[in-house]
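hey
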């Protein structure tokens, strides 16, 4: 039998409650042990707990009006978080950005 991927296990774990079968019957039907099912389910929860909480993207340079030539257009760092989208200049020191991300983890 081919080895199941993480995606296959995630799908099986989601399918079990909807199947109407007990975990024992579901495992028997799909030919794996109950202990494997629970181990994979615990591993899935652990992975979900350590997954990144924010999606970081690099925004394209913004257009600058001719009257405001004093500031050069620069790339921005955008963090998408459950509290909203946070935008910072790309010149922001990395250690400061790290402190912001740590603070957002508490939200």
């Amino acid at each position: 039998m081919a080895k199941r991927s993480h995606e296959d296990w995630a799908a099986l774990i989601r399918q079990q409650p909807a199947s109407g079968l007990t975990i024992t019957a579901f495992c028997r039907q799909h030919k794996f042990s109950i202990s494997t099912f629970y181990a994979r389910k615990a591993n899935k929860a652990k992975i979900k707990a350590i997954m990144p909480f924010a999606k970081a993207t690099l925004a394209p340079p913004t257009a600058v009006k001719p009257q405001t030539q004093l500031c050069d257009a620069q790339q921005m760092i955008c963090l998408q978080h459950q509290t909203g989208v946070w935008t910072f200049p790309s010149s922001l020191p990395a250690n400061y950005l790290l402190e912001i991300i740590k603070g957002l983890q508490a939200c």
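DSSP finds four helices and three strands in the chain. The chain has a mean pLDDT of 75.
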